[in-house]
Amino acid sequence: METPTTSPHATRIASAPEVLAVFLKLGLTSFGGPIAHIGYFRREFVERRRWLDDETFTDLVGLCQFLPGPASSQVGFSIGLLRAGWLGGLAAWCGFTLPSVILLIAFAAIAPSLAGPLGTGLIHGLKIVAVAVVAQAVWDMARRLCPDHRRAAIALIAMVLLSVMTTAYSQLIVIVIGAALGIALCQTTGSPMAVTPPQHVLVFRVSRTAGAVALMLFCVLLAGLPTLAAVDASHAIKLFDAFYRSGALVFGGGHVVLPLLQQQTVATGWVTPNVFLAGYGAAQAVPGPLFTFAAFLGWMLAGTPSHAMGALIAIVGIFLPGLLLVIAALPYWQALRSRPSMAAMLAGINAAVVGLLATALYTPVWTSAILTKVDFAIAVIGFFLLARWKVPPLLVVAFCALATIGEVVLH
C-alpha cells in the first residue's frame, strides 16, 4: 500500500495581515453563494497563489460540507489556519465576512424609511428574488444530493414530516431521521470518501486537545443555551441562543439556513415575514457568505440594547458553532473520512436537507411573495435567469426589483 504523504503546500507560513488582505478582496467580490465561493477560493488559493494543492483543497471542501455550518466560511477559516495559524484563521473569517455584514446592516438601517411606490416595489422585488433563488437552490441540490430513489425518498419523507409536525424541534428531528435513514439505506450508494481513502495527510496547527475543547464548548453551548434562555429574561441571551442553534443545525449551508432562521425569528414574532424576506432578498445582492443575513435580522430585532449589539450577537451566534466544529474535526478528519458509515449518514442528512428547503420554498417564501400573476411571471423569469442562463445573482436582484417597482407604479 502506498504510504500517505503530507501535502507540500500545507506547511508554508504567511502573516495574518496577508491572509486578511486576500480574504477581504474575496469578501468584496465573491458573489453567487457557497458553491460559487468554493470556485473563487480554488482559483485564488490553488491556481493563482498556490497556497495549497488541489487534493488538499478538495479534502477541506469535503470536510466542511460534512459539517453543519457555512461551508465556504469554514473552508476559508481552514485555509487561513493552514496558512498562518490561529490569527490567520480569524483574519480569513473577518476579511470574508465583514463586507457583507456592513452592507446588510446599511440596508437594515434604511429599510424602515423606504416608502411610496419605489420603496414598496423594491421590498416586494427582494421577496420575489428569494423565490427564484430558493427555487434554484432546491433544484440544484435535489439533482446533486438526491440522485437515486433512496435519497429522493428521504427528501420526500422529510417534506411530509415537516408539513405535519408543529414542534419547535421539527427541523432537528427531520435531520436526525435523515441521518438514520442514510445509514440504513445509503451504505451502497457509493462515495469517493468511502471507496478510495486519500493517500496524503493534512497537516494543521490544531492539536487534539484544542479539537476536544472546541467540541466540548460546542456541545455545552448547544445544550446549555436553551436552558439559560428559559430561566434568564435577557433578550440578548435568547437572541444568541436562537442564532447559535440555527448555525449549529445547518447541514449544507447557504440557503438551508432560511427555514431555521425563519423558525427562530418569524415564528417567534421577532420580525415580520415581509421584513424577513426583504432582508433575505437583499442578501442575494451582496458578496460573501449568505449567513451574514443574520446581521440584518439582528439589527431589525427589538429588545436588544442597540441595533448594533443585536447584529453583533446574531453574527457571532450563527458563525460560532460552524467554526468550533471545524476546529474540533480537523485533528480527526484523517480517520473519519475513510469510514463508509459517515458518508452514508451524510448522504441521508443532505437528502433530508433538500426536503427541508423545499418545504421552506412553499412557506414562507412562496406564500409571502407571490401575490399576483405578474409576481409569478417575474419569479419564473428570475429562476430561469439563475438556473438556465447562469446570470449573476446581482443582476437578477436588479431585474426583480425594477420589474416590481414598475408593477407598483403602473398600478
Summarize the structure.
74% of the residues lie in helices and 1% in strands. With 411 residues, the protein is mainly α. It has one domain.
Number of helices: 18
Poorly predicted regions are 1-11, 189-199
Percentage of β-strand residues: under 5%
Domains (count): 1
- Rg is 21 Å
Element order: H for helix, E for strand? EHHHHHHHHEHHHHHHHHHH
Distance between the termini: 72 Å
What overall geometry do the principal axes of the alpha carbons give? Answer: globular
Which strand order do you get reading across the main beta sheet?
Answer: 1-2
Helix content range: over 70%
Number of strands: 2
By secondary-structure content and strand pairing, the structural class works out as mainly alpha
Q: What's the mean pLDDT score?
A: 83
In this structure, how is the largest beta sheet organized?
2 strands, parallel
Transmembrane segments: 20-41, 86-110, 122-142, 154-185, 210-231, 243-261, 281-302, 309-330, 342-363, 393-410
Keywords: Cell membrane, Membrane, Transmembrane, Transmembrane helix
Protein name: Chromate ion family chromate transporter
Pfam family, one: Chromate_transp
What does this structure look like?
By secondary structure, the chain is mainly alpha-helical. The protein is built from 18 helices and 2 strands. Helix 3 crosses helix 4. The radius of gyration is 21 Å and the shape is globular. The N terminus is likely disordered. Pfam families: Chromate_transp. It is found in: Cell membrane. Keywords: Cell membrane, Membrane, Transmembrane, Transmembrane helix.
